[in-house]
Write a structure and sequence with these properties.
Elements: H1 6-28, H2 34-56, H3 65-93, H4 95-102, H5 105-116, H6 123-140, H7 152-182, H8 187-213, H9 223-250, H10 253-260, H11 263-273, H12 280-308
């Protein structure tokens, strides 16, 4: 395992790119249904990954079949099922509440990694995870004017989907981590395999939905919608998932999952640039989360150096 901060930096970059993409998806999502948008961004990202592999001449790791199968399973669970559950939860609860429940993913991942992969985290890392989660939760639980009360039915269904998304996210991270540490698959191929496996699950679903509901696709008539979708897919899916796999490969699963969940914090400066008002509570949450990230970076690095000495 590389202890020079490569995995942590990759996770933060992925979170930042997902924040940019989420803002764009929030706009184009008004024109494109969530399931179709999930498929479209996957196809765009797969095309970019294939071109990157051709350009870099990265060989396919045919000597490691088990890690390849694990990565495909990770894609089906984490991207195919997880992203679908996440989008369904947003439709019932709204993004802010779903992101709050999503902050449960890092501790779930860390505990599962401890049980399954025998990955041990020192006390400083656990403190960093807790502080980061508190900072993110402090930001996204702030009451926003216009938030309506949810019916009990919507609340139960939304919480169920959000918890399913959290669990599948943790499962996908653990399985991907196991594949990347046990085989010779590099993060570029790992991202392609995970996305491709997810598309195999999603495409028949979209086809059945279109067949049953006779869906139309008027959004293709807008060049702006097409460009915005491709841009978001390039940033959030192509680069984001590639960086995610680098993070999972080069740092322990609990730390990677925590840093990958900081996307809501990067939305704040984007909102300021777009002219939105940001409260002092949101800024305080960012400071708290940055403190947690500092613990993850520096204290865990000090411990790793002491152990290696």
């Amino acid at each position: 395992m590389v202890a020079d901060g490569t995995g942590e930096l990759a996770a933060l970059l992925a979170a930042a790119l997902w924040a940019v993409a989420s803002v764009v998806y929030g706009i184009v999502g008004q024109r494109i249904p969530p399931l179709q948008l999930n498929v479209i961004k996957g196809i765009v990202a797969i095309a970019c990954l294939i071109l990157t592999i051709i350009f870099t001449r990265e060989a396919f790791p045919i000597s490691a079949p088990i890690p390849i199968l694990l990565l495909c399973l990770s894609g089906v669970i984490g991207i195919g099922w997880g992203d679908t559950a996440f989008l369904a939860a947003i439709n019932h609860l709204g993004a802010r509440r779903v992101l709050l429940i999503g902050t449960l993913s890092p501790p779930v991942t860390a505990i599962a990694a401890n049980l399954v992969l025998r990955e041990q985290l020192h006390l400083s890392a656990w403190c960093g995870i807790l502080l980061t989660i508190l900072g993110v939760a402090w930001v996204i639980t702030e009451r926003v004017p216009g938030d309506g009360e949810l019916s009990p039915t919507h609340l139960r269904i939304g919480i169920g989907f959000a918890l399913l998304a959290t669990i599948t996210n943790a499962m996908g991270t653990i399985i991907s981590r196991a594949a990347l540490t046990s085989g010779s698959v590099n993060p570029l191929w790992a991202a392609l395999l995970r996305l491709s496996a997810a598309e195999v699950i999603l495409l028949p679903w979209v086809w059945l939905q279109r067949k049953n509901q006779e869906l139309s696709y008027p959004y293709w008539q807008s060049r702006r919608v097409i460009f915005a979708t491709c841009f978001a897919a390039f940033c959030g899916t192509y680069l984001g998932i590639w960086l995610q796999q680098i993070a999972i490969k080069f740092t322990v699963a609990g730390i990677a999952s925590t840093l990958l969940q900081t996307s809501p914090l990067f939305v704040i400066p984007i909102a300021i640039l777009m002219g939105e008002k940001v409260s002092w509570r949101a800024i305080a949450g960012v400071i708290i989360a940055i403190g947690g990230i500092a613990l993850l970076f520096y204290l865990q690095g000090i411990v790793n150096q002491a152990v290696g000495a």
